[in-house]
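Q: Predict the bound structure with protoporphyrin IX containing FE.
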Amino acid sequence: MSQSLNLPYVALAVCIALSIYRFLVYPLFLSPLSRIPSAHPLAKFTSLWILYIRYRNLENSTIHKAHQKWGPVIQLGPNELSVNCVKDGILTVYSGGFEKGDWYNLFANYEGVRNMFSMPLSKQHSSRKRMLSNIYSKSHLQSSPTMSSISSNLIFDRFLPELNSKGDTPFNIYALFSAIAMDFVCAYLFGLESGSNLTQDEEFRTWFLDLYDSRRSYNFWPQELPRLTSALASIGINLTPKWVNDANKEIEEWTLSMVDKSAAVLEKTQAQKAEALNEADIGNFPTVYSQLLSASAKAAGKDGPSDHNRERLEIASELLDHLAAGFDTTGITLTYLIHELSQRPDLQSSLRQELLTLSPQITQSNNPHLPLPKSLDTLPLLNAIIEETLRLRAAIPGPQPRITPPGGCTLGPQGEYPNIPSGIRISALAHSLHRNANVFTNPEQWLPERYLTSSDEQLKEMRRWFWAFGSGGRMCVGSKLALLEIKYVVAALYTNFRTVVVDDGGIEQMDIYTAPPRGGKLIVRLERVED
Ligand code: HEM
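A: Predicted complex:
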């Protein structure tokens, strides 16, 4: 009798002992992660702390402060780490074998149609990347007649006329930069005629940018708690408001319309190669669409794709990701570059002097002739200004999560943390890597001069830590396109104008993965420069 009475107490005691072991003793003393410093006292035991930080949009600054306090490897949750070093840090995590997890599912489009960015496994990802890398390479972009025609058209027929139309009226240059960046990327994806024209169509620009921005703060639930989000959705509780899904659908429809126009252009010209087109049509060639279509057909074999609608959605999902990844980031970078340069009139003058050495100069009278892209690469100040903006104001400053592979890994600059198990979420973030004071003196200051006066050794070190485009197999495929368009836009602007900030309220970057100015604007006034 007394024995059976004791049984529940014994069971309770066992449960308590097991819980103490599982939730206190193991994480504090026995887990291979136990020696790694915690970003917060709760991080060893629960993910609630880091979830709260993410929910409040405080992630990048909080993780950075924790790295400054606790070193290059820190624990964010029972199964989550952050690294802030190159050796046994980003070189380990981003060089292969560490797959993407559920966090990237959100970037699939058309109800789950994956694109390169959201493909979890490297095998599938690399086969898609092989289809696309060549057309995004520097050599291809710099020698492509289509890219040359696109650049000339967008700079002379859209961007400069738009700037000229402003007179001395202040305007939001962030919206204009987002527009020209979208037109560049869409023209390369779909061709000039089938792509966007946000630069000249202000009404459409406002519609699109509002639609796009309205969705920004609704990523938390599906990205951080995907299972809870879908479980609640299955019983009718939607954590993402319906209008966000509607906004996504509108953007998807818009992309499909550009895909279909590109298909019609290709069919009309019956050309798969840009070289086959005549001079007038060259800018209308849908480079990326055409490449993806032919590479997919090749991959499908001689019978071609079995489901044409599925193929259309696969292509649209991929291209939608490129336009979204391409316009937002480039617009943000240009905005911060102008914000910084506007505080430095002396540097604007030096930049202009450098730009006047280009041949031909980027003035309306030289329309349609632009200097070659490679001549822009040789301008030290222009390149230093861009590199420094990408460092201090990385458009994607937030963590890029990966999962530790089967077999685990070793972390820490001196390999201090061996035996990290598989299945751990691990990230690095440009925000922190770019603020290492041992590498970038006065890291919080925008100092393009650092690239002009540092020794070769220092420059090499700065470039090892430069991470605005990520690194490894999943690194940004569009980095060379972004740099090309940024250089043309900045060169066109400062050859012809000075910029003066009128209102920079809310210019600070949001503390999120892709980080635009909090206020969504930068109001400037242009002053025409005389020859
Ligand atoms: C200043 C401009 C840009 C910045 C700072 C930037 C930054 C990045 C970063 C950091 C990643 C890796 C993200 C991660 O793994 O979580 C990435 C990936 C990517 N970016 Fe960019 N990007 C820029 C412009 C562009 C442009 C113009 C395109 C147009 C094609 C583009 C397309 C992509 C794609 C498709 C990926 C996924 C690559 C893959 O999964 O292999 N980006 N970008």
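A: The chain is about 55% helix and 5% strand.
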